[in-house]
Amino acid sequence: MEEFKSGFVAIIGRTNVGKSTLINMLVGEKIAAMANKVQTTRTAIKGIVNRENSQIIFIDTPGIHKPKTKLNNTMIETSFSSIPDADVILFLIEADSKEIGRGDSKILEKIKEANKKTILIINKIDLVEKESLLDLINLYSKEYNFEAIIPISANDAKYKEAILKEIEKNLKAGPAYYDKEEYTDQTLRQLAEETIREKTLMLLDQEVPHGIYIEVEKMKLRKNKQKEEIYDIEATIYCLRNSHKGIIIGKNGTMLKRIGKLSRIDMEKNFGTKVNLKTWVKVKEDWQNQDSIVNKFKQN
User: Fold this and answer.
1) Strand pairing of 54-60 and 45-51?
2) What is the pLDDT of residues 200-237, one digit of tens each?
3) Rounded CA gap, 142 and 99, in Å?
4) What's the pLDDT tens digit per position in 270-292?
5) Residue 60 in contact with residue 41, Cβ under 8 Å?
6) Which residue has the higher pLDDT, 40 or 114?
7) Less Cβ around it within 10 Å: N or C end of the chain?
8) Rounded-to-integer distance, Cα 233 and Cα 118, Å
9) Are strands 148-151 and 88-94 parallel, antiparallel or unpaired?
């Protein structure tokens, strides 16, 4: 019988390269917020893949970007601190890169320091010609001795097996750290907050989304008159200024209703129960520099 393997795999890359899309595809469940905006992921989220002879625990890290606030600094610390602790690194870059930019150079530097087994994942290959892809592979091959280089499109599940097999090859024998039924170590409360934040990111423009954070104030499971289980969830969307509050609420409350409706639909699907969701919007100026809030995003 084949030896059982297990290990922790950190997915690291610049902002907006598709890390959350990739982890959701590999895990097969929606655990990380996905939006075509920078800084979507603020904490290191674990996703768990149980296979016949292995258990792979993925850590989706915040994207590497230029820090402007305490929150930004915390996010970057979270990303880099996951490298030494991981058994394998998935380093994600974009296929249309022509050179190794500042962010990717910084990540490479940290990988070299840690001397970790690393698989280079080149995402968004549908955007480039084969010749420029080969040039990129050649460029990165000279920088580090990668265990493998896998070109993919993170939206396409056909690449999933190749990535998981390559990871499995590079894991050591070890126990299952989580039950077979588990696919994330996030609590339902965290998943609820993540879902509301994703919908807000998706529906709002430019500067507003990254000036928000979500706090679930109440989450209670009860049975309705039909004896069906239902979660009562009350959540507050905090933003940086009054003008943002108006945008989040929208004319006659339409935007907030849309955020709530899309969040509820996703939660019901993920939790397997009905959800009664109530949301409020409050202003909390400069929360990105308040330790009491920023500390919530620190790596445990």
Assistant:
1) antiparallel
2) 888 886 545 567 788 888 888 888 888 888 889 999 88
3) 12
4) 778 889 999 998 887 665 555 55
5) yes
6) 114
7) N
8) 40
9) unpaired
Amino acid at 57: I
Provide the residue ranges of all domains of the chain, joining segments of one domain with +: 5-173, 188-297
Q: How far apart are CA 25 and CA 39, in angstroms?
A: 19
CATH 3.90.600.10 at 188-297, yes or no:
no
Task: Kindly state the helix (H) or strand (E) to which residue 278 belongs, with its residue range.
Answer: strand 274-283
pTM: 0.59
Q: How many CB atoms lie within 10 A of CB 75?
A: 26
On the question of pLDDT at 299 being above 60, the answer is no
For residue 70, report the phi and psi dihedrals to the nearest 5 degrees: -60, -40
The whole-angstrom separation of Cα 135 and Cα 163 is 21
Q: Starting at the earlier edge strand, list the strands of the sheet with 274-283.
A: 213-223, 229-239, 274-283
CB 98 within 8 A of CB 131: no
User: What is the overall mean pLDDT for the chain?
Assistant: 80
